[in-house]
Hints:
Elements: H1 2-35, H2 78-85, H3 89-95, H4 100-109, E1 113-115, E2 121-123
Helix pairs in contact: 2-4, 3-4
Amino acid sequence: xxxxxxxxxxxxxxxxxxxxxxxxxxxxxxxxxxxxxxxxxxxxxxxxxxxxxxxxxxxxxxxxxxxxxxxxxxxxxxxxxxxxxxxxxxxxxxxxxxxxxxxxxxxxxxxxxxxxxxxxxxxxxxxxxxxxxx
Length: 134
């Protein structure tokens, strides 16, 4: 009985030691991989960051967010958004990965769906506060 208890204890100790070694190796590998991702500035990769010399030319297939090419004066939804966008509805649909028919349908059937001035879709959900306990 003492032999089986000693064997069991030895097996448990070896299993725990093996698990600790595996964890240590995994941590070392993670540290090594993250240090090799270009965050260090040891000059091995030149420490250079690619920066374009000229800003990219605007394309006709996308709309620029940030107020430069605003399509709407404010977020709009439903028929109001469809009317305000007019022919630009197709561009807004493309920007959001939809067909014009799907966008039109979504705007007419989802009350909280709005088109932001930039052309991106957003949901304007109103939250009601939870009831106060009495």
